[in-house]
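Ops channel
N.P.: pipeline sanity check, posting one input/output pair.
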């Protein structure tokens, strides 16, 4: 008979660690979504593009919030719903990451132009009548540093989401395991 490992691949205790992990995903997804909504026109120049990326980021944050609520309340239904949603979220996030990397590479000259012209927005994206300018830290670090930071952060985001899906799946399996045990009725705890 195969040995079962309840705590394999866990960095933190299962339920509390998964809540903490979901909190981290929620916080950085919401912050990333807000940054994309505010400064997206400086990096992505087709009108709804930055709004779609920011919306996906906020959607990831919503699933992470739902996961926090499911784990906090020990809800079987919400845990199963999260276990259902995470694969779709991961695929959408992976597609978003690939498209963002390709588009950033494609818009390299426009981003460099924005930095060379005082942080003003590129002409094709100027339909967005925003008075903000690109933050100076992005221009001083250079495009290659910005590009590498985007790639690393998108890959870390995917790894965090995959691990969150694993934690949700593992917690769901633990719920199923304990659900099959007999409760305090009809034979006492664990039928002892």
């Amino acid at each position: 008979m195969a040995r079962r490992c309840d705590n394999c691949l866990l960095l933190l205790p299962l339920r509390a660690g998964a809540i903490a992990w979901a909190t981290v995903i929620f916080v950085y997804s919401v912050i990333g979504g807000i940054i994309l909504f505010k400064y997206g026109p400086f990096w992505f120049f087709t009108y709804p593009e930055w709004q779609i990326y920011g919306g996906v980021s906020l959607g990831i944050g919503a699933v992470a919030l739902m996961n926090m609520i499911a784990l906090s309340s020990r809800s079987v239904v919400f845990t199963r719903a999260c276990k259902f949603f995470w694969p779709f979220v991961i695929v959408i996030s992976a597609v978003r990451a690939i498209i963002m990397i390709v588009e950033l590479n494609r818009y390299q000259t426009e981003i460099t132009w924005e930095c060379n012209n005082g942080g003003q927005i590129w002409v094709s994206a100027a339909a967005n009548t925003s008075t903000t300018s690109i933050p100076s830290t992005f221009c001083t670090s250079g495009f290659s540093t910005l590009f590498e930071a985007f790639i690393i952060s998108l890959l870390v985001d995917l790894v965090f989401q995959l691990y969150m899906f694993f934690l949700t799946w593992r917690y769901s399996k633990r719920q199923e395991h304990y659900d099959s045990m007999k409760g305090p009725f009809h034979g006492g705890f664990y039928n002892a």
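N.P.: looks fine end to end. The chain has a mean pLDDT of 84.
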